[in-house]
Amino acid sequence: MKNFTFRINENNYGVKILSHENNTIELEVNGTSYSVKMKEEIKKVKTPTLVRKPANAAIEPVKINPVSSRAKIIAPIPGVILSINVKVGDTVKENDLLLVLEAMKMENSIASEKSGIVTAINVAVGQQVLQGEVMIELE
């Protein structure tokens, strides 16, 4: 199975593990066979399992209420803000580029879904955002 070399008190020992069943190991040291019974059973290493909690609900695209004059631009996915193309007080039209969000090594352009005036920018360049976080508010 496996070969090892040990140096004990300036002497070299060649150890070859022949078999391992339960807590008994058959090995050979410098050509001499030995059967070694372990005091405790060797625990096997388990591969960790990644467990994620289920998402509460899928995030839907921003729906603008036609009666409301306010709109919130939220992060569709977690990521990092690469650039912000507007500032507070800017007038934007529908489909104008507001910011670029990097997620999973891809750049995602976030555009305005309605015309309006930028009233608040809640993020900064280089900031990490979570899914559903409000990034920009329009009026």
From TrEMBL:
Tagged with keyword Cell inner membrane: no
Lipoyl-binding domain location: 64-139
UniProt keyword Acyltransferase present: no
Gene3D superfamilies: 2.40.50.100
SUPFAM superfamilies, A to Z: Single hybrid motif
Keywords annotated in UniProt: Biotin
Protein name as it appears in the record: Acetyl-CoA carboxylase biotin carboxyl carrier protein subunit
Organism of provenance: Confluentibacter flavum
